[in-house]
């Protein structure tokens, strides 16, 4: 055992969005935690757009918050424009988005981190990982500070698929890190969340130089160290657009895009966002045929098309030159001019990610009406970086080859702050649980987008930066933003991330939900109530649209930006025949929304509305409902209105869970399964799925192959029993 300069329970390397969540989770769970970063002044730096959320990404932030993470609360404190997207569609795809103050975000994050007990922030470059042979212990109780290790047969003290084991029971273990200055730091678990810094290489036209982000050094030593440990890697690419001086923009030439009148917070613990009354607008711009001409004439100078860049970029966030090449018939492309903060004139040009030379970027900007005189503060660029093949990971985000080493964020092949944050949180939770010698927290893909992201990564891997979409979820009506707390807060409470006060608030909210549902189910519509319901239909803009669309978002970009809170359709149907029905049955009608029933519900349950000012005539006050109260009511409405769909999904969820219960033992030998192709055998040996359901989601593994594995599990189990009896 080496002599360490310092010793911590958990060490986190990298202080981006994944690292901050990982460090906070471990510290809040009572473990002595250290967070290492190259520059403490750039903690949680928003290197691309200073926005949080969006289609499906907003779901991830809500889930992080429900589990006890901090991204949602930070966003509510520093967001300068809030919008609830996709409200013209069904509630399955509603998603919050906030434009943040870039500087305020990192300052607030640092303030929260520095005030957290058990957490120390360190500025230093991590150069290497310290690993030692992982001893095989017959007495599982001796494996203090980690999950039970494999015995000589490969069996574990945990259910199959729950713990980090190998066929032969031999495995290295991470015991600390080595800093560039020679110091060594011991740790019970190490979490690496290095973002784009591993061997990062920036491209801007023909120019290229090593960097983790513009103006910051790349992490070359750590990148090479991970390669030496035998972790399979790949090279990915992402990019960023130019930033402009807002004082040089002709704002009169653009369409204004305001925030919601009453913003929906990200955090379930936020009553009202900080900048509720001081939101700033964004603006919509368009490219021109001249823009297209300039890009076409210079596309050969783009590193993507000159051969200078060989790695793959994000398919769903293409560069402006990529759009022109791949969509030659599209004459114009939408851009969004978004402020980077309240105390800066810097403007982010969303939709114009590029790695073209600086002089070409300037020419492109001048071709856009309103930007002819715009001054470019920072040019756009592309960055290539190393990532680790996520099929190297367990569901806990621990590496299969090295015990005690967890990875989170872009190092696992994802894109986006939100995808990074949910991974960082899960890595932090599971690293802490391992050190505490407690069972890991493994979410099922039927209960969280976070689980879908992790399951997709470890089952399929990725050859491009992975982005979350609602279409990736089989049960997206079940995985809504409004019920993320019901799905996940009990998990957060169990591991110690939900405080007593937050837990009490959660229980009270669930009680209100159940009480309102029961009220709707037992109350029958009368003629007097019908008059109150009808009066609301004349009000405009009383809430999100109520179209019963259940599909996912059509895509990113314009679809994400163009949604807003809309008024519901005026009620024109004759409801006389509905008199005598209960209110829940009435709410199932497509033309009826929960807002129509507010006057009735206020009279029946005034305590539910105690925090909102409902006047003598509630019909005139419906539009004044607070976002928190409206969201609680919409959650009740959704579960009543779509009860049939939810029941169908629940049955499908049960079928999927049964498939997930068919575990594949760690000792299972794929090589002896007659009938499996060599390609399938190699894939299964490399990924080592934990269940038959997991195996069925691996690309190239056919239903026939899964059936063969199922049969041979029994065959091999009998052979092992017979061998043990001899």
Describe what you observe in this structure.
With 726 residues, this protein is of the alpha+beta class. It has 22 helices and 21 strands. The strands form four sheets. Strands 1, 2, 6, 7, 8, 9, 20 and 21 form an eight-stranded mixed beta sheet that branches. A hairpin with a 6-residue loop joins β16 and β17 (346-350). α1 (17-28) runs parallel beside α10 (417-435), α2 packs parallel to α10 (417-435) and α3 crosses α4. The two termini are 41 Å apart.
Cα-based radius of gyration, to the nearest Å: 27 Å
What does the main sheet amount to?
8 strands, mixed
Quote the distance from N terminus to C terminus.
Answer: 41 Å
Indicate the low-confidence ranges by residue numbers: 136-169, 538-569
**Which structural category fits the helices and strands?**
alpha+beta
- Oligomer category: single chain
Instruction: Indicate the proportion of strand residues.
Output: 15-25%
Rounded mean pLDDT score: 88
Which outline best applies? Answer: globular
DSSP E strands, number: 21
* Overall helicity: 25-40%
């Amino acid at each position: 055992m080496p002599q360490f300069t310092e010793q911590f329970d958990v060490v986190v390397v990298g202080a981006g969005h994944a690292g901050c969540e990982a460090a906070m989770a471990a510290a809040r769970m009572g473990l002595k935690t250290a967070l290492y970063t190259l520059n403490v002044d750039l903690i949680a730096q928003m290197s691309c757009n200073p926005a949080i959320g969006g289609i499906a990404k907003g779901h991830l932030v809500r889930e992080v918050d429900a589990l006890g993470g901090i991204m949602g609360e930070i966003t509510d404190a520093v967001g300068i424009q809030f919008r609830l997207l996709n409200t013209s569609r069904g509630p399955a795809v509603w998603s919050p988005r906030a434009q943040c103050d870039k500087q305020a975000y990192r300052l607030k994050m640092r303030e929260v981190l520095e005030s957290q007990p058990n957490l120390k922030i360190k500025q230093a470059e991590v150069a290497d990982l310290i690993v030692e042979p992982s001893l095989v212990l017959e007495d599982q109780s001796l494996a203090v500070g980690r999950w039970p290790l494999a015995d000589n047969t490969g069996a574990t003290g945990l259910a199959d698929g729950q713990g980090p084991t190998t066929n032969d029971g031999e495995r290295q273990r991470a015991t600390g890190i080595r800093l560039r200055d020679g110091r060594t730091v011991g740790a019970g678990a190490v979490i690496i969340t290095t973002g784009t810094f591993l061997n990062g290489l920036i491209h801007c036209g023909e120019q290229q130089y090593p960097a983790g982000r513009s103006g910051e050094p790349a992490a070359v030593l750590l990148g090479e160290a991970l390669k030496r440990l035998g972790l399979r890697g790949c090279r990915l690419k992402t990019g960023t657009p130019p930033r402009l001086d807002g004082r040089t923009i002709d704002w009169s030439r653009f369409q204004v895009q305001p925030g919601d009148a009453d913003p929906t917070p990200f955090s379930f613990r936020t009553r009202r966002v900080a900048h509720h009354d001081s939101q700033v607008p964004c603006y919509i711009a368009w490219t021109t045929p001249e823009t297209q001409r300039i890009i076409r004439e210079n596309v050969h100078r783009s590193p993507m098309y000159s051969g200078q860049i060989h790695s793959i970029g994000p398919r769903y966030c293409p560069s402006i030159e990529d759009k022109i090449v791949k969509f030659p018939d599209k004459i114009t492309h939408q851009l969004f001019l978004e402020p980077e903060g309240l105390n800066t004139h810097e403007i982010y040009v969303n939709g114009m990610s590029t790695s073209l030379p600086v002089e070409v970027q300037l020419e492109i900007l001048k071709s856009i009406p309103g930007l002819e005189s715009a001054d470019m503060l920072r040019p756009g660029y592309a960055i290539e970086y190393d990532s680790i093949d996520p099929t190297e990971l367990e569901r806990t985000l621990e590496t299969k080859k090295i015990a005690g080493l967890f990875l989170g964020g872009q190092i696992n092949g994802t894109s986006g702050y939100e995808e990074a944050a949910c991974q960082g949180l899960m890595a932090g939770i599971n690293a802490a649980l391992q050190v505490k010698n407690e069972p890991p927290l493994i979410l099922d893909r039927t209960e969280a987008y976070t689980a879908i992201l992790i399951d997709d990564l470890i089952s399929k891997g990725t050859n491009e930066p992975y982005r979350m979409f609602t279409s990736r979820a089989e049960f997206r009506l079940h995985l809504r933003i409004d019920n993320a707390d019901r799905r996940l807060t009990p998990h957060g409470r169990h591991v110690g991330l939900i405080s007593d006060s937050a837990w009490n608030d959660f229980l009270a909210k669930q009680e209100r939900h159940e009480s309102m549902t029961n009220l709707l189910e037992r109350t029958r519509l009368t003629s007097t109530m019908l008059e109150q319901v009808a009066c609301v239909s004349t009000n405009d803009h009383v809430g999100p649209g109520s179209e019963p669309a259940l599909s996912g978002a059509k895509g990113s970009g314009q679809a994400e930006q163009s949604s807003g809170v809309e008024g519901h359709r005026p009620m024109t149907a004759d409801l006389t025949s509905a008199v005598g029905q209960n209110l829940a049955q009435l709410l199932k009608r497509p033309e009826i929304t929960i807002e129509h029933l507010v006057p009735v519900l206020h009279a029946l349950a005034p305590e539910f509305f105690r925090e909102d000012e409902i006047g003598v005539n509630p019909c005139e006050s419906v539009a004044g409902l607070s976002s928190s109260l409206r969201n609680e009511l919409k959650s009740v409405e959704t579960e009543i209105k779509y009860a049939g769909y939810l029941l169908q999904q629940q049955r499908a969820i049960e079928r999927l869970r049964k498939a997930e219960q068919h575990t594949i033992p760690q000792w299972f030998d794929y090589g002896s399964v007659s009938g499996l192709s060599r390609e399938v055998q190699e894939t299964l040996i490399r990924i080592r799925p934990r269940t038959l359901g997991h195996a069925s989601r691996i690309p190239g593994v056919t239903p026939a192959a899964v059936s063969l594995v199922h049969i041979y599990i029994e065959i091999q189990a009998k052979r092992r029993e017979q061998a043990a009896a001899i």
